[in-house]
Structure of Nickel-dependent hydrogenase:
Amino acid sequence: MTPAGKIVIDLYHDSGTVSGVQIASNRPEAIAQVLIGKTPDQVLETVPLLFTLCGNAQAYAALLACRAALGIATEPELDSARDLLVQLETLREHAWRILLDWPVFIGLAQDKKALASLLKFDALFKRHLFRHAEAFKLDSCLNVDTDRLMQLIDDLEALIDTSIFNGRLVEFQALTGEAQLQNWLRQSNALPASLLNHLYGRNWAAVGQNNVACLPEFEEEVLSRGLQRQDLSTFSRMPHWQGRCFETTLLNRQLSQPLIADMRGRYGNGLIVRTLARLLEVALTPSQLRRLLMQITDLSVLPLSGAINESVGLAQVQAARGLLIHRLQLKQGRVHDYRIIAPTEWNFHPEGVVAQGLKQLQAENLNDLQRQAELYINAVDPCVQYALHLTDSRNEIENHA
């Protein structure tokens, strides 16, 4: 696997108030260059080896881009099955963060048994969806065991209900406003309730609230024309759209949920809204998996990828952490250029949503400031390791005097 690199975040503060933020990434710019000179089939063999996180989303984006560049017709049934795998991966990534990170923030023990159980589902779903479990190849074939897949979705939902919601998943799914949420919190001793009560108790619900907007959805042709006007090398590292930074996180996908709409009216895009968006995505995904399973036999469902021309392919996939874009150009049947724009590049842009959110932090002491920063970074969620450094601005000025 190609090394993923790291994000370094320097947070400067003065008496508990953030005075500046610098974000730098040493993520390899040349990951996609590994694919130069390869055939589409070789690309699809290589991409899963390059990415350990969001591997299904990366493989699917690569497949859609290759298919578009080759002018291959859409495959509605297969793409519904592939979308199901990406949704499954999204649920796993969010549940992993909840079970692994949230207990640490509030001094509870991690549920490592549930973490281990989550890992088994990907291979099982692939085995019962595709022949030879090969989902992301140009010649993939369906081999669907509907009954077994329905049982797997039921098992997954039961695991989420038990390990995260402590048996009260259905009640959480029905929440539409803050009053209902607070009633649910009073009656629940589940891990999310403990974290949310912690945020309320510390008056941290609006932590990180800022004015960075969510990235709009792109039609293929609009995105294609926009990219043609960009320096692709710069855009891949520090993307912006029409001169603005945007965020592309799981919050984008949950904006229409009644609970999120109500909470945003009070807390904007602050910490509690992001926390609830992650919980809602986990809570609602099993129903989406069932819908996608039914769509595998519904030919009216179409994918979102299309060809730009006979040699350039562009793909958009909603990965766990936001919009993932792959763009490739073929010459004489081999990759001439390949670009990957991951959600991390949008969200951890030096002027992006993480930088702007961290600039809003205020705390009474250094420990609280660091915990606020860690909670906020975790809520946006980089797909790589990060290092957070807090520096007293006054000492910094003295050292440079």
About this structure: Confidence is low (pLDDT under 50) at residues 298-308, 397-401. The radius of gyration is 22 Å. Residues 76-105 form the longest helix (30 residues).
